[in-house]
Amino acid sequence: MKTNFKVDNSIIKSLLLASFYFSFLFSYSQESTKLTLINSYDIDDVGEPSGLSYDKVNNQLFSVSDSDDIFRLSTKGKVLDTYDFSADLEGVTNYNIANTLLIAIEDTYELIEYNYITKESTTHKMDYDNQDDPGSGIEGVTYNPTNGEIYFLNEKDPAALIVANSNFNVTNEYRLTFSGDLSASSYVEETGFLWLGSDEESTIYKCNTQGNVFETFTMEDSDGDLLDKLEGIAVDYDNQLLYVITDGDAKLYVYQIDVESTITDTLTVSTLDNFEAEANSKTINVTSNTDWNVSENSSWVTINTTSGSNDGSITISVNDNTTTTSRTATVTVSSNNITRTITITQNGNEEEIEESIPAICSAGTNLSLNATIADYSSQENTQNNAENIIYGDETNRWSAQGFPQYIIVDLGNAYDINEINLIPYSERAYQFTIEGSTTSATSGFNTILDASDNTDGGNLITKEFTTQSAQYVKLTITGAAVYTGNWASIIDFKIKCAGQTEIEEEKEDTSCTSGSNLSLNSPIIEFSAEQNSTNSVSNLFDGYDTTRWSAQGYPQSVVFDLGAVYDVNQINLYPYLGRAYQFKVQGSATSPDNGYSTLRDVNNNTMGGFVITREFDTYQVRYIRLTVNSAADYDGAWVSINQFEVICAGSEAGKSLSIDNSIEVSSYPTPFTNSITVDANNQIIGNVKLLNLFGKVIKSIKGNSNEITINNLDDLTSGMYLIQVLNTENQIINTKKVLKK
Questions:
Q1: Would you give the DSSP letter of residue 389?
Q2: 452 and 311 in one domain?
Q3: Are 139 and 182 in contact (CB under 8 A)?
Q4: CA-CA distance, 737 to 493, in Å (whole number)?
Q5: Are residues 538 and 499 part of one domain?
């Protein structure tokens, strides 16, 4: 009896709606695949099967068992050989070496290369440190012989697809929302598809290697009943057969695969909110399976690319709208006979916006960390891309072939700068020039530094120069002194703030309440590394113990700015999973680069838990350096910290550096969301300005009363800001910090 199974289209529709929520869904790819059950075989001799792999060279199958055995099977389920292997086996796949299998061990999160002829094995501990449920382990493994990638599954909580390279280093994790439990996987080299199985749902999903579902199959036996505990799947592409092994009824099922249609071209473009009047940029996502082109129809709109292939993104930038009326333009994305048009709307300048006051930054701050790339000459590929040189991550680089090569960094506002640090790849003695402009990324550049005759290489090239103001900084690599190749390769490019004397001479009240957390939303000056944008270093200071900073390897460090000199006498470190991290905390009152004293050395710590608290003698500090060196009870190599707090001792050490707030001013609500009201009691307010921590004016409202409200702040990023209050004679009467929720 043959039973036919077709795709459950209702599931596909649900997945597509979830995947493209708040997007325009114009079309999607769909293969219409039919699975026909053609045979089933008893496999009673295979106890508790938990994985399946097809060996196409020898036309045979391999399975593993929870009872510590590896089985070599015929394609009819007959046991041809048994290999004893004592471990909690949960997945198997044929590997790239002859007679070698790759076996997944559930409880230890290990992948083992096993030669079933020589019985030799090599164990690889997989560093997957992103589980919500440590009790959930590996449930399937499969191998991509084209690029050497290994795909393995986290069973549940979360159900996830994890990708490792040929060196067994984890490179990506894709959390899968379409299933709550995963048990099996099989990669098909000829099509590039992953087939994933769920035992609890008796369902197989046909996906790409990022876990995006294209087809879904509900698996049934010849009686129309759901398969009982689906534990392994394998695809024989040449014969278009799907093998499924089950634990509940101990059977090997064989299905014929029939593809009834081919994939059609797809092109999906996400939506775009209105632009504010100020010049800024937004990104739209393109989902496609073919080549596409991009064009725009207005001089005030620019795009960062004119073409792409498959999935990608487009950055759209607009110039300042100095009029009070909104304006529109269009960006067109086209592919073959599919065209998508995005309407670009920029709001008019409805409020009176004053020019920004000179941007405030601390001397020595690396301004590149908060910058963007405005333009560049070329880049080798997406891996060695231009943006790598401003991330502060010394494991990546920008590479471009041929001299000269240039890159333009947008600092976001004009700052006084007096130093650059260049970290060259392979310590090459690159020769270069530095130019700066305060007005545009395309014009108005003046030469800041000419190092075109440089002969110094090493791991860091430092050049100081006379203080100059610039928002756009252009680095041009003209050649190299010793290196005879023609590659411009830069690991990191740091642009250092000179500090502003006129700002530092003003006085701001920096007294603090005893026991308050001074590090909340503190600006980060420098850090060693971070895992990704999800587990980023900024999570240390966001006030939430559900987020964390993660970085691989010891030591790891971060330097941050409290904003002024404070008396501190305690730190609280909230370790991920209660680990007993060993670390040192240092503080400096004068500079982020030097003048540090040790506040507390915790390198001998053996106690973990929810929070590690250390008190110490009161110090006056502004800059804090946290260095994590190891852990007492954790064998892994990950530094993962939920929160780090620096606690005020309760004095007014910072008054010598502060602005004189002569008029009492209050603001509410605290924290604010979409609006904030400033109340100066009986004092008439002439102007209220909302600034970021670098001193850039976000909004400025004029008035003639003792109370002024700033509205329309929904799109403002959460974090700490400054409120600056001026009287009717344009004199500053109060400056205070406020928190945006």
A1: G
A2: no
A3: yes
A4: 31
A5: no
The tally of domains found in the chain comes to: 5
Return the DSSP state at 361.
-
What is the mean pLDDT for each group of 10 consecutive residues in the chain (741 residues)?
A: 40 38 35 87 89 93 87 93 87 89 88 91 83 70 92 88 91 88 91 91 92 91 92 94 93 88 71 87 90 90 93 93 84 85 83 48 85 91 89 87 94 90 94 92 91 92 91 95 93 86 38 83 90 88 87 94 90 93 93 90 92 90 95 92 91 37 78 88 85 69 85 82 81 80 80
Rounded Cα distance, 506 and 658, in Å:
6
Token pair belonging to 601:
């050395």
- Encode pLDDT of 524-541 as tens digits: 999 999 888 888 998 999
Same domain for 578 and 696: no
Distance between CA atoms of 452 and 461, rounded to whole angstroms? 13
Q: Is 717 exposed, middle or buried (0-12, 13-18, 19+ CB in 10 A)?
A: exposed
Query: What are 396's two structure tokens?
Result: 């990546």
∠ at Cα 376 (372, 379), nearest 5°?
A: 110
Q: Are residues 255 and 271 in the same domain?
A: no
Q: Output the pTM of the full model.
A: 0.38
Query: Domain of 313: which CATH number?
Result: 2.60.40.10
| Distance separating alpha carbons of residues 217 and 202, to the nearest angstrom | 9
Backbone angles phi, psi at 200, to 5 degrees: -70, -30
Instruction: Provide the token pair at 325.
Output: 């009326």
Considering Cα of 449, then 450, then 455, then 459, what sign does the dihedral take?
positive
Sign of the torsion angle spanned by Cα atoms 461, 462, 467, 473: positive
CA-nearest of 458, 636, 645 to 556 is 636
516 three-class SS: coil
Cα 579 from Cα 11, distance rounded (Å) = 41
Specify whether 411 is located in the same domain as 496.
Answer: yes
- Give CA–CA dist 352/702, Å, rounded: 8
CATH number of the domain enclosing 428: 2.60.120.260
User: CA-CA distance, 510 to 633, in Å (whole number)?
Assistant: 39
With respect to residue 386, please indicate whether it lies within any of the assigned structural domains: yes
End-to-end C-alpha distance for the chain, whole angstroms: 63
Distance CA 345, CA 298 (A): 12
Domain that holds residue 722: 661-740
β-pair type (49-55, 60-65): antiparallel
Q: How far is CA 723 from CA 116, 359, 514, 682, 702, in A?
A: 70, 15, 23, 18, 13
The whole-number pLDDT of residue 130 equals 56
Judge if 299 and 321 occupy the same domain.
yes
Do 87 and 67 belong to one domain? yes
